[in-house]
Amino acid sequence: MKSYEVNFDGLVGPTHNYGGLSYGNVASQSNSQQSSNPKEAALQGLAKMKALMEMGFQQGVLAPQERPDVAALRRLGFSGTDAQVIERAAKEAMPLLVASCSASSMWVANAATVSPSADTADGRVHFTAANLNCKYHRSIEHPTTSRVLGAMFANQQHFAHHAALPAVAQFGDEGAANHTRFCREYGEAGVEFFVFGRSAFDNRYPAPQKYPARQTLEASQAVARLHGLRDEGVVYAQQNPGVIDQGVFHNDVIAVGNGEALFYHEDAFLDTEQMLAELQGKLARVGSNFQSICVPRSAVTVDDAVRSYLFNSQLLSRPDGSMLLIVPQECQANERVWNYLQGLTSSGGLIREVKVFDLKQSMQNGGGPACLRLRVALNETELAAVNPGVIMTAPLYGSLTAWVEKHYRDRLSETDLADPQLLLECRTALDELTQILKLGAVYPFQIN
After folding, report:
1. Which of 203, 312, 422, 445 could form a disulfide with 370 if both were Cys (CB 3.0 to 4.6 A apart)?
2. What is the pLDDT of residue 362?
């Protein structure tokens, strides 16, 4: 039976704005308060989805969330009509309104952790929505994330869904941004690689001093238990706290893996040699020929990696066994990064080609190609059980681009977030989107 890695890209929401909400994310903070272009952002993301589909890769789409989140503001004491809640929040606590308007759910690498059926005890694909409790604006996402994923992967014979972990610091979970799966073939048993920034209960693990470590060891272990993963099919590794303090807020900013390959920066991990040996050994047991590609700091600095998002790229397997790297334009603009990539692809190694995409709107808010996609390994039967409305096709691309052109603004500033009309625009757009994607009622305004 054939198997595939399907990339489900997040569709940028109508309230895409530069709120500067993510402490520890250099791009997010440095572009704070600039005006954004939600329409351009959504169209850039859709163009990437279309291009990958046309290259022969399986591609899907994951819907954005309702914003502003009026219910979240009500839980914080704002009352009245929806318009009054927004107006009061803008007057009394603008930072809370900005947070409630964040379109950060577009970065669906943080939506959940996914384990394919070949790895799990019950032979189903398992999803655990990430609690994202390190940042308030992201911590409010997981209820809707769970409903959307449930509507996309509804067949209980093939798919199992778990609620987010307890929303406390000890179980901080940032989803697939800190999770990679290695395997020989997507439908065969593999090894799941969990990267954590700190331990909540074991002080033997060093922690960063400047920026928060968002993923805990305990959260990763809990997800592995929920998914029924075997000990021999899991490797835990600690992210280097020194690079977290340089702006590497997730592992996918400093490393990316796929199939039998790990592409990483020399400074990405603690105890790198021990980690690589464990990966090599466990993958050898399932017949996989694991390879690691280390980018030396002498060629690309951590600062280069953070500013270019070299590692926040998509590493995709081609039928001939080679790999394609999808990178943002910022990599081409960085001389050291681009020189390294030119040498990499001409060396005859595993990564043979690099394709560059314009994702400026997302990049300015701190999310690159890898942030925008959630990877789900599926066999033919499981792929057939996915809601067909979310699988990218040429007609769906046409429908979604027309939908964006119809509903999205081409400029959004912080003052625009106080306009109650923006909520009505968002709800109108999302109500139409659920019909396009055949999701049913997944948003609070559709349910309540």
Report:
1. 312
2. 83
Specify which residues 10 forms β-bridges with: 62
pLDDT in tens, 238-277: 999 999 999 998 999 999 999 999 999 999 999 999 999 9
Could you tell me the CATH number of the domain that includes residue 47?
Answer: 3.75.10.20
Residue 71: count of CB within 10 angstroms of its CB: 16
- Rg of the chain, C-alpha, whole Å: 21
Length of the chain: 448
Closest CA to 422 of 61, 87, 179, 114: 87
Give pLDDT, residue 348: 85
End-to-end CA gap in the chain: 42
Active-site residue identified among 137, 158, 179, 250: 250
127 occurs within a structural domain:
yes
d(CA 416, CA 130): 29
Which residues fall within 8 angstroms of residue 156, CB to CB, at 6 or more apart?
none
- Our answer to whether residue 161 is catalytic in this structure is no
Count of CB atoms within 10 A of residue 292's CB? 16
CA 197 centroid distance within chain:
17
pLDDT at 32 over 70: no
Question: Which residue in 174, 192, 218, 260 is the catalytic one?
Answer: 174
For residue 113, the one-letter residue type is: T
Structurally, the chain folds into a number of domains equal to 1
Q: Is 174 a catalytic residue?
A: yes
Domain annotation covers residue 79: no
Average pLDDT over residues 220-242: 97
CA–CA dist 446, 363 (Å, integer): 31
- Percentage above 70 pLDDT, the chain: 97
Does some domain include residue 318?
A: no
Catalytic, out of 101, 134, 371, 426? 371
DSSP code of residue 163:
P
| Burial readout 314-333 (b: 16 or more C-beta within 10 A, e: otherwise) | bbbbeeeeebbbbbbebbee
Domain of 137?
3-67+102-231+362-447
Strand 3-10 to strand 261-265: parallel, antiparallel, or no bridges (unpaired)? unpaired
265 is catalytic: no
How many distinct helices (H) and strands (E) make up the chain? 18, 15
- Is the model's pTM score more than 0.90? yes
Residue 301 lies in a domain: no
Residue 355 backbone dihedrals phi, psi, to 5 degrees: -120, 135
What are the pLDDT digits (tens) for 414-444? 899 999 999 999 999 999 999 999 999 999 9
